[in-house]
Amino acid sequence: MNIKGTITLKQGRDHSVKRLHPWVFSGAIQQTTDGLKDGDWVEVQDVSKKTLGFGHYQKGTITVRIVSFGAVPPGNSVYRSKIKVAFAQRLATQVISEYTNAFRLVHGEGDGLPGLIIDIYHDVAIVQAHSAGMHLVRNLVSDAIKMALEEKGFSVSAVYYKSLAEKSESEYLLGMAGVPHIVLEHGNKFYVDWEEGQKTGFFLDQRENRKLLGEMSKDKTVLNTFCYTGGFSVYALQNQAALVHSVDASEKAVVMTRKNLTLNGFDPQVHHCVASDTFDFIKDKKDVYDVIILDPPAFAKHKDARHQAIKGYQRLNTEVMKMIRSGGIIFTFSCSQVVDRQLFYDTVVSAGIQSGRQIKVLHHLSQPADHPVSLYHSEGEYLKGLVLYVE
Fold first, then answer.
1. What CATH number has the domain spanning 77-184?
2. Using CA atoms, how far apart are residues 318 and 312, in angstroms rounded to an integer?
3. How far apart are CA 207 and CA 293, in angstroms?
4. How many other CB atoms are there within 10 angstroms of residue 244's CB atom?
5. Strands 158-161 and 291-294
6. Does residue 168 surpass a pLDDT of 80?
7. How far apart are CA 155 and CA 125, in angstroms?
8. Which end of the chain is more exposed for a tag (fewer CB within 10 A), N or C?
9. Residue 307 pLDDT more than 70?
10. CATH superfamily of 203-390
């Protein structure tokens, strides 16, 4: 590993790094070695020249993502050692079982590898790099995945790199696998298409929330809005929901939902899957549903869009609170990182007031154990959810 330069922090701007926060912001930097390129390894030091850590450089607001804290430069084995630790945590927290073979192996900063996402679908690993540094080491990461999993007796038949960059194509770094691929989640079967699907092909972060929804669905009529590939719908039906309707604006998503219902033995003609805007679908459905899931895509991906996002969450929750049956249950979520837990809660409170109904909070929901949040990087908690009882 070749350290290409040094980043020196301003006086008093090194506290967050000393508290093990992995991001170095451009405004905290006093001096930068000339000629650095995106993805270069750099040393981060304070004004006294004390080394604080090493990470990947990238021009932008977040200028360095620290991979290794301390004065000792990491070698190429850093990826293998951190992936090995991450896998041990998944085994220890029993994320993986004979009933679940789809899980997140590496969750960026939460696993000490900022900018790196690795999802496992049975014996196929999907890699996404959210930084230039992780993009450049994708082959090292692929080798590390295979080694870490096979040491514990898990086979890896393929590693697929799903590129986020316009100038870089997605590719198989190891082997090749056909899509869609069938995976298990709490015994439920799902098709996953990592080549054409959103993100890595499936939203693994909702696994435990889907399980809770299923447990509350027996004999209920359920509406799953923004259904994507029908995860919540399958769980509701497996737990004997009386009827489930799945809605998504994407025809592709609806087609995959129908396939997943059929895969699990349910008739998508009975449990309708509809390609429609959610607001259009719900406007004439008052007192039809006992349980409603609101899991929209991120309404705000950056701070500038936050105000509009809040208005969107408020309107959506208000309309659903008004239309759900008395005694109904709402699962409502936000996956927008820039909308924190308190702001989301306050927005739902505002929606409740506008609906004019009495509402109780039954559960506060978040992401599961394979999406860990570093104690020193609270930004890693992006998924917020509430389970509401509407009187």
1. 3.30.750.80
2. 10
3. 14
4. 30
5. unpaired
6. no
7. 10
8. C
9. yes
10. Vaccinia Virus protein VP39 (3.40.50.150)
Q: Where are the domains of the chain?
A: 3-69, 77-184, 203-390
Find where tokens 């990470």 sit. Answer: 55
Residue entry with tokens 């992995």: 22
What length does the chain have?
Answer: 391
Residue with the two structure tokens 């820039």: 338
Does the CA dihedral 86-91-95-96 come out positive or negative? positive
Sequence-distant (≥ 6) Cβ neighbours of residue 305 within 8 angstroms: 299, 338
Classify 3-69 by CATH class.
mainly beta
Which residue in this structure is represented by tokens 């992006």?
382
In this predicted structure, what is the pLDDT of residue 306?
Answer: 81
CA 30 to chain CA centroid, nearest Å: 34
pLDDT at position 366 over 90: yes
How many angstroms separate the CA atoms of 151 and 350, rounded?
Answer: 51
- For residue 191, which amino acid is it? Y
CA separation for the pair 209, 236 (Å, rounded): 11
Quick one: residue 238, left, alpha or beta (phi over 0 = left, psi -120 to 50 = alpha)?
A: alpha
pLDDT at 309: 83
Mean predicted lDDT score pLDDT of the chain: 95
What is the mean predicted confidence (pLDDT) over 288-312? 85
Locate 61 and state its tokens. Answer: 């607001």
